[in-house]
Amino acid sequence: MMRKFNFLNLLFWSLIALTSCTEIFEKDIEKEEITIYTPNGKDSINYSQTFWWSQVDFATDYQLTVVSPSFTAPEKMLLDTIVKNNRFAYYLGPGKFEWQVRAMNGGYKTKYFGSKFKIDTTEISLQTVNLKLPVNSKVLAEGLIEFEWSRLLGAKGYQFQLDSSQSYRLPIVNDFRTSTTYSYNLAVPDTYFWRVRAYNEKKDTTDWTEFKFTLDNSIPLKVALLSPLQSASNQGQSGTLKWNDLGSGYRYTVYIQVGSGQGIEYPNQSSASYNYSSISKGQEVKWKVKAVSAAGIEGPYSDLWSFTIQP
Fold it and tell me: Listing from the earlier edge strand, what are the strands of the sheet with 36-38?
C-alpha cells in the first residue's frame, strides 16, 4: 500500500513540475494581436507578394495560410506553412486572395489575423523575376553552382547572365532558356554577379533582377586553444572551453572525449567558446576545435588538449 502511495505521489509531483516548467518557458501569447502590414486590402499588379506582419514577443513560429478567393468560399488552398520570421515572399499571379497568420510557441497560439487583396493582370514589363538560389551575398566554395529563380506567368523564357563584373559587358554566361534553373562550374575565387529577366512571345521583357555571391576557396587557419590550459587539473564539473576567434563568418566544431568514452563532435558553434557541464569528478577530458568557413570549407583540427575534473 505504501509503495503504491509513493508511486502516485511521485507521479503527482512530476506532473506539477512539468506544468511549472511549461509555465516558466512558454509565455502565454493567446491575447496578443498581430498588425497586418502588406498585402492589406489594396489592389496590386505585382504577381509576387511579400506577406509582412508585426512580430509577437515570445512567439517561436508563425502559421501563414493563403487561399483563393476567400476563406468563406475557398476554391484553392495556395499556401499553408510554418515560418520563423515575420516576412514571407510567394509568387501568386493574378486573382483574388485572402490570407491569415497566427503566432505560436510551444504552449500557446494567437487567433488568426489577415486581409483580402486582389492582383490584377498586367503586362510582363511591370512584373519582377524573384531570384532564389544562391541567396544574395552568399559565400560559396568552388564547384557546381546551382542557380534558381521563380517562374513568371506569361513568360515564354528567361535570359540568364553571369559575370565577375557588374557591367556584364562580356558575361561569362549569357543564356536563353525556358526552365527556371541553371548550373555552372566555378573555380576562381572572386565576387560574381548574376541576373535574370523574363520575356514573352512579343519579346517584351521584365527589368533585370540581380544578386551577387562570393567564391572563397581558402582553408581556415588552425585554431589555437586558450583555456583550460593543457594538462590543467582540478577543473570544475562545469566550465568553458575557449580558443582564438578567427573572425566573422566562421563557425566551429568542438570535439570532446570524456574518459575512455566515445568522442563527440559539437558542430556549428558561432562563438569562440563552448560551455560544458555535468562531467563526473576525476574524469580526464580531451578536446580540440576546428574552424569552418562561410563557404563550408573545414580547417584542420587544433592540437588535442586535455584537463582533469577535480576529484
Answer: 36-38, 48-53, 87-91
